[in-house]
Specification:
Length: 619
């Protein structure tokens, strides 16, 4: 929904053309007027002297223009003048007898328009040139005071009127706990006086924290829609400019506008762009950002609690925010907007699939099970991709098969059937993927294998093995982590059985397995001889994902060597475990790889059933 009010602004290119036209027209006018007075030094003489010069043959050229006479001397005068101007004298005066020795001259009648233009036109020209230049430099500022050079300190926040916010809590699904937290804000904005009858006051700021795409901005708009108040929407990066002091001026202007519109909501998206901890960067040039942050802190402190203004902010990097922002009295309430669990994904899918024509085989629970870890934005993209896939095959409705194809498209990338592999490479890829699948099916408790394919996808994937978790997991045990490493090593183990010349296809598997092993040793205290010690204690990104285990080292060289040895031992055991499973199931590996080469894609039911791993072999 757009937050722009009133007339639609002119395109950027049209603003440039208009400014250039103004400057060109004014410049032409300036040079035209200046040309009238150019051409060398000129002397103003009386009419009597003009008559005398004519009589002495000292005038080379005469031009009569109305009541004015202009001309050129034959020779340069003693004062350096080469031309002259005089005013005509009426004949009844000019023809009087010269014996009276009277010198005649004339002046323009009343000063008139020329005098007026001489005083007014130059200032107007300078104002016009300045106005056109300021519009060129200010872009889409609007009027003389609304944009350009004088408007650089104005806030860029977009004001959405209370009647234009069409989003409500019914449009937000999968984050029930966050909605309950924000209901208090709605009650306060609706009836601020009744809310404070016992002396309570609403928190000054509420920080929405969560991974990208979980609906933080949508929640903020829903609060404004439920409360029916104006909504100022801005981004943390919009406060930072190249001019010193501009960021602080924009913060002041934003809060001044909010006071005039109270009760209202100020929403600052990507707060980490504005509120990064002061002094955290060793590089210089941070004074402007720190000044802007200081102004924000001062404005939040200076709020009158009786003014019904609520500040909402969103970030996915809370660990880098300045502690002064998070203290009591500022953003003292943090609302977690996390990735939805299975029940939440069902609710989100129902919201996004309302406007899509669905087939009768749609199962919301099955769709939610296919999308573990998906955010609200991912699910919206899934619905759109499924509809596009159904449209491409000219179907009347979107079926489950379309959603399955959309999940593959999002997770693994677009099929690259034009990327033709030579037979030897296809055989290596087939054994590699079948190795993953057989190890996963042989280990009890591993995620079930949904599909195996050797069709190239995405940028670099030559094949993939898709596993579907049985349930959402928030904790993982050491055995489950070892299982994941063994499954990741299944591809390299299968290539090893083909011959000693292994390929580069296991690069991503090795990187992910190494991350898991290093996390077990350095963060989770699962390093065996290293003991239950968290060697990596530095705070990481919010909701760490696999691949984010590396941190600056805070231990000795000897400990680092022990950690490296422990990581290497875990990875070696995982590879040996995968090799043992595949040696036991070599016949199934060969048959599955040949079947995969023939069909290019196999589902879980079409895969060979391996001999299960015994508990003694697992450890």
């Amino acid at each position: 929904m757009s937050g722009t009010q009133g007339r639609k602004p002119a395109p950027e290119g049209r603003n440039w053309l208009t400014g250039i036209a103004w400057i060109a027209a004014l410049g032409f006018l300036v040079f035209s007027i200046a040309g009238q007075y150019a051409g060398g030094a000129s002397e103003t003489i009386s009419y009597t002297r003009f008559r005398q010069l004519l009589a002495d043959n000292q005038v080379a050229r005469v031009v009569v223009s109305g009541e004015q006479i202009r001309g050129d001397f034959r020779e340069k005068q003693s004062g350096g003048a080469t031309s002259f101007t005089t005013q005509r004298v009426p004949p009844d005066v000019a023809e009087l007898p010269a014996a009276k020795d009277v010198e005649f001259s004339a002046t323009p009648a009343g000063g008139g328009l020329s005098t007026l233009l001489g005083w007014i036109l130059p200032p107007l020209m300078f104002v016009g040139i300045w106005f056109a230049a300021s519009r060129l430099m200010g872009g889409k500022g609007g009027g003389m005071l609304g944009g350009g050079l004088l408007g650089v300190g104005r806030s860029k926040a977009k004001l959405v009127a209370e009647t234009d916010v069409k989003v409500s809590f019914d449009d937000v699904a999968g984050v029930d706990e966050a909605k309950e937290e924000l209901h208090e804000i709605v009650d306060f904005l609706r009836t601020p006086d009744a809310f404070g009858r016992l002396g309570a006051h609403i928190p000054r700021g509420i920080l929405l924290v969560g991974p990208p795409g979980t609906g933080k901005t949508l929640l903020a708009r829903a609060v404004a829609g439920e409360a029916g108040v104006p909504f100022f929407n801005t981004n943390g990066a919009e406060f930072v400019e190249m001019f010193v002091g501009v960021g602080a001026a924009r913060v002041r202007d934003l809060f001044e506008q909010a006071r005039q519109k109270a009760p209202c909501i100020i929403f600052i998206d990507e707060l980490d762009a504005l509120g990064r901890a002061r002094g955290a960067s060793p590089a210089g040039g941070q004074d402007e950002k720190e000044q802007t942050l200081n102004q924000l802190l001062a404005e939040m402190d200076g709020f009158d609690r009786s003014v019904a203004i609520v500040i909402l902010a969103a970030t996915n990097r809370p660990e880098i925010l300045d502690p002064a922002l998070l203290r009591a009295g500022r953003f003292d309430r943090q609302v977690l907007v996390d990735r939805p669990e299975k029940k939440g994904r069902v609710q989100i899918l129902k919201v996004h699939l309302k406007k899509i024509t669905l087939a009768s085989d749609i199962d919301y629970d099955a769709l939610a099970a296919m999308t573990p870890g998906f955010t609200g934005a991912d699910l919206a993209n899934l619905a759109n991709e499924a509809a596009v896939h159904a449209t491409r095959r000219k179907a009347d409705a979107v079926a489950m098969a379309d959603f399955a194809a959309a999940v593959e498209r999002i997770v693994a990338g677009l099929e690259k059937r034009s990327r033709v592999l030579i037979p030897s490479e296809r055989r290596i890829v087939a054994y590699h993927e079948m190795g993953h699948a057989l190890v996963a099916r042989a280990i009890q408790g591993a995620d079930p294998v949904q599909k195996v394919s050797i069709i190239p996808r995405g940028i670099a994937a030559l094949g993939y093995t898709m596993q579907q978790p049985m349930e959402d997991r928030f904790l993982m045990g050491a055995n489950e982590l070892r299982t994941r490493m063994a499954v990741l090593m299944g591809g390299r183990a299968a290539e090893t059985l083909l011959g000693p010349d292994v390929s580069t296809g296991a690069a991503d598997d090795l990187a992910r397995a190494t991350d898991i092993a290093r996390g077990m040793v350095a963060r989770f205290g699962m390093g065996g001889a290293l003991g239950p010690v968290a060697w990596d204690t530095e705070p990481g990104r919010f909701l760490d994902q696999p691949g984010a285990f590396w941190r600056p080292r805070g231990y000795s060289e000897a400990t680092a060597r022990e950690i490296d040895d422990a990581v290497r031992e875990l990875l070696g055991r995982a590879l040996e475990r995968a090799l043992a499973i595949l040696r036991t199931n070599r016949t199934a590996l060969d048959a599955g790889a040949e079947n995969l080469l023939a069909h290019e894609m196999l589902t879980g039911d079409e895969l060979p059933v391996p001999i299960p791993e015994s508990n003694n072999d697992a450890l």
